[in-house]
Design brief:
This protein is of the alpha+beta class. The chain has 5 domains: 87 residues, no CATH class; 78 residues, Arc Repressor Mutant, subunit A (Orthogonal Bundle); 84 residues, Winged helix-like DNA-binding domain superfamily/Winged helix DNA-binding domain (Arc Repressor Mutant, subunit A, Orthogonal Bundle); 79 residues; 309 residues, Endonuclease/exonuclease/phosphatase (Deoxyribonuclease I, Chain A, 4-Layer Sandwich). The chain is built from 29 helices and 24 strands. It has a 7-stranded mixed beta sheet with strand order 10-23-24-11-12-14-13. Helix 23 crosses helix 24. The longest helix has 19 residues. The protein is elongated, with a radius of gyration of 32 Å.
């Protein structure tokens, strides 16, 4: 319910922004979510020359608890009771104020494209038009503002540098490189693993002397390249870094680090390093690659047991969560299971079938195992928190190939695979910037190293010479799988329903049907993707797809099992889902529902998770296992955390078929 305390919180935000002369949205939201962060806010306010009483008032106004916020009358009383400091102690010259304003202005990321865009420079004329600078010059009755601003920046500015003719300024390269070096040394992953820094900090109450700080390789390399840089200049520059703070006695301290916790965190980091080493060894590959490692088994590893002292105050699981790079902690049925993650989660546990009618080891007939993966390789350009380099196809392709290689499926069904239009070879150029990559040929080259051969079919509707084609691709292991015959079904809505003209060109409206054979076992595999939108159009496409499967099945040996995989873009309670399961001739079931009892979430798009990808198989086929998929929160973090390199998670099943 809205109350006056909400206005007090908003006023506290304004006070904080006024004290810093810039927007501090992330800061006051951090205070709201984490009350312990208020100490950092107090330091920021007092560093600007304001009293601790004002800093305490701002923190109380930003309190998460409404009852802890002061009333409007209390705010006025507190402000009126504050005695102003002597003017001589807080007054700054006009040049110092101008330099401080310009430092803040240039430091904002939003100013990167202002004025001179070629090298990130901002002209002096633009700085003269800033309201605060203009008011300072007006109060001092300055006639030559350009000279005053130039002199002010030369004497007092910390974050800017001039061009050759001193007509424009930009953010200093020295500042950028020092900030980058600080982020490198004092990130949580690096700092708590650095034995040298932790040993120095443990002997100096958690601080590092500035001379030692400047002797670090990356820091000294930057400083030596810029002549005339003093220790005071370095201290003033790095004091703006969010990872560290500069104490009064010119010592560098990592923010959030308690002096008495330095040795404990070092012990944690040393323990975590041994755990990472154990998970990268043959010990994990040989014994635990499929089942994961329990805590007791981990503690029996010789290197881990030696590094873990039970008298230490840290918790082993907490240390692994906080420091281990290659280990994923999974809670399952009240137990802690540890898995290795090599850039991607290569060893996510499979869930064995418990309600399958096929009894392993009972039938005297020989069985054939077939592992099928379905993966939509689309990566939405609008994903939040995803950097531009990650969206490049070359980076995503390597990660997806690593995922595929970790499971080594016999058949891979890919959807939304991009391939350049053939008309490009006749002189047409692709001008759609995001559509230049040739997904299929790149994936073919990568997967050929692992023994795969692929087949591609593009969307029938996308015949524009200026755009790339989107379609489906199937890859099979050449040594294990023999391709008997191939057919494709045109599911374009223009053909199925000529009255429909509002077709989205990038839909993968095609179905690939492959008759394959493995160990004398014939299998019919169908890979497809339905259009997004109207369910009636999806029903038309599904009907065409199933009709094509039935037609191809007539040329196969009797009792040939059918596998249908793809991104169907439907809900489990939809008519399309029921049409597939109720088909009398094909007689199929959902593999994941047969094992888990429900369909998992596989897609995160437009801020929501949904079940979009499915694998169906004939009811007579046994399901050995399915790939365990994350829940909604884990799926969102995995996709935004770049684990899958796509907005979809891969799904995988191990099928058992009687010959």
């Amino acid at each position: 319910m809205y109350t006056y305390s909400a206005d007090i919180w908003s006023m506290g935000c304004i006070f904080l922004e006024l004290s810093q002369l810039k927007l501090e949205k992330n800061m006051y939201m951090e205070v709201f979510m984490n009350p312990g962060y208020s100490e950092d806010v107090k330091n920021l306010v007092t560093m600007r020359g304001y009293s601790t009483k004002l800093a305490d008032l701002i923190c109380s106004m930003l309190s998460r608890e409404e009852s802890a916020r002061p009333s409007a009358a209390q705010v006025l009383t507190t402000i009126s009771s504050m005695k102003p400091e002597p003017v001589s102690s807080i007054q700054k010259s006009a040049e110092e104020l101008i330099a401080e304003v310009v430092d803040v202005y240039i430091g904002e990321e939003s100013q990167k494209t202002i004025d001179n865009r070629q090298k990130g420079y901002v002209k002096i004329e633009t700085l003269l038009k800033l309201p605060i600078v203009a008011s300072i010059l007006e109060e001092t009755k300055c006639t030559d503002g350009r000279t005053v601003v130039t002199n002010a920046l030369t004497k007092y500015a910390k974050m800017v540098e001039f061009n050759q003719d001193k007509t424009a300024v930009r953010r200093s390269k020295l500042v950028q490189k020092l900030h980058k070096a600080v982020a490198k040394y004092f990130s949580d992953e690096r700092y708590y693993r650095d034995k040298f820094l932790l040993s120095i900090a443990s002997h100096n109450n958690g601080c590092i002397p500035l001379t030692v700080f400047m002797s670090l390789k990356s820091i000294s390399k930057v400083v030596l390249r810029h002549t005339g840089v003093t220790a005071e200049r370095v201290a003033s520059i790095v004091s703006e870094c969010p990872e560290i703070e500069i104490t009064e006695d010119m010592m560098v301290k990592k923010i959030g680090l308690q002096a008495n916790a330095t040795q404990d965190r070092w012990e944690e980091a040393r323990f975590a390093k041994k755990v990472d080493s154990a998970f990268n060894s043959q010990w994990y590959d040989k014994h635990f690659s499929n089942t994961g490692v329990g805590v007791n088994n981990l503690m029996h590893h010789p290197r881990v047991a030696k590094s873990f002292n039970r008298n230490n105050r840290f918790d082993a699981i907490q240390a692994i969560r906080r420091n281990c790079v290659n280990v994923e902690v999974v809670e399952r049925d009240g137990n802690i299971i540890l898995f290795r993650k090599d850039g991607v989660n290569r060893n996510r546990q499979t869930v064995s079938s418990t309600n399958d009618k096929f009894q392993f080891g009972v039938s005297k007939c020989a069985t054939t195992e077939l592992t099928v993966m379905s993966f939509n390789i689309l990566c939405d350009q609008s994903l939040e928190n995803i950097s531009a380099p990650f969206l490049k196809w070359a980076n995503r392709a390597r990660n997806m190939v690593a995922i595929i290689d970790s499971y080594k499926p016999h058949v891979i069904c890919l959807q939304e695979v991009q391939s350049p239009n053939e008309n490009k070879q006749r002189g047409h150029k692709l001008f759609n910037g995001g559509m230049r990559e040739d997904h299929f040929n790149h994936m073919s080259k990568f997967l050929a190293r692992y023994g795969y051969v692929g087949l591609y079919k593009h969307n029938m509707e996308n015949e524009s010479p200026t755009t790339a084609r989107i379609g489906c691709a199937v890859f099979v292991i050449k040594e294990d799988i023999d391709i008997v015959s191939i057919s494709n079904v045109d599911m374009s809505l223009a053909k199925l329903n000529p009255g429909v003209r509002h077709i989205v060109p990038s839909q993968g409206n095609v179905a690939q049907i492959l008759h394959v054979k493995r160990k004398d076992q014939h299998i019919l595999v169908c890979n497809t993707q339905l259009c997004a939108g109207d369910e009636s159009q999806q029903l038309l496409q599904t009907q065409a797809c199933l009709s094509g499967v039935r037609h191809h099945l007539q040329s196969c040996p009797p009792n040939t099992p059918v596998v249908l995989a793809g991104d169907l873009r439907i809900a489990p309670d939809s008519e399309v889902y029921r049409m597939i399961c109720d088909d009398q001739m094909l007689g199929m079931k959902s593999c994941y529902k047969a094992v888990l009892g429900h369909e998992p979430l596989t897609c995160f798009k437009n801020g929501a998770c949904s079940a979009s990808d499915y694998i169906f198989c004939s009811k007579a086929v046994g399901i050995g296992a399915v790939l365990d998929l994350p829940n909604a929160d884990q799926l969102r973090s995995s996709i935004q955390g770049k684990e899958f390199s796509s907005t979809h998670a891969p799904i995988l099943v191990k099928l058992q078929m009687q010959q």
